[in-house]
Amino acid sequence: SFNFQLDDAHKDVLLRNENLAVCKTPSQNETGDMKFQMDFDSRKKGELNFTYLEDPVISYVFSGGSQQDERPRTIASGGIRIHVMGEHLQSVYKPSICFNGTTFCEECQAENETSMRCLSPAMEEEFYPAVLTYGFQLDGVKTYSDMGSFLLLQDPIYYNFEGVKLHLRGYLTLDGHNLDLGVSLEEIEVWIGKEKCKVTSLSRTQLICLLPDRQPRGGFNGNPPLLTGGWTSTRVPILTSTQEYPSDLLLPPAVLEPREED
């Protein structure tokens, strides 16, 4: 037989093969070091110290441009950064955020002891806005499994340009609908071809970015240049044919696609 022992108490073995054994630690009422051993047919092997740390504490959650005292929010396509503030957040082995019980879950990443970041999963509802319940899976900690409500909004809608868009310098304005609902300015990155168009303003109906000094080159593998945003994996044409105008006077065709995480 084979068992794990933690301070002379046997623990459940979850996985075992020739090269690996995994067990689940029980809860404890205090932090500190404890003796850890493996028991092979009543023969104890390997005496190591196992450390119990403080349980994580979540103070508040915000996302999608929400403030600390507001209900956090996301959009149907997901990919929105959810910021979690608290204490001892690096103590958790595999944290995740879940919506409507465990219907939609996504792993989180602790950036340090007081900050953790999650990405919202893609979620669809029949009507918007929708109110979802949410909570966190933090190993054995149950305190934060129900954190209240989370607001789910429709994706932003960007309108196509009419005809060819001529731009020599300055700012590019993209029009649309609900552009800042559930998406903050910091989460949007605009690329035209292989160069950035720096986002300077985001409102309910417009996104404004500062164009590169020179005409950008096209995208990789011969694809047309792209305009990228941080919430959707759907490519949406923004600019149309450039055949009637000299190429050095035109912004290249642009597309919406996701921003990569840092």
From TrEMBL:
InterPro entries: Ig_E-set (IPR014756), IPT_dom (IPR002909), Plexin (IPR031148). GO terms for cellular component: plasma membrane; semaphorin receptor complex. It comes from the Eukaryota. Residues 172-215 form the IPT/TIG domain. GO terms for biological process: regulation of cell migration. Coiled coil: none annotated. Signal peptide: none annotated. One of its GO terms (molecular function) is semaphorin receptor activity. SUPFAM superfamilies: E set domains. PANTHER family: PLEXIN, PLEXIN A, ISOFORM A. This is IPT/TIG domain-containing protein.
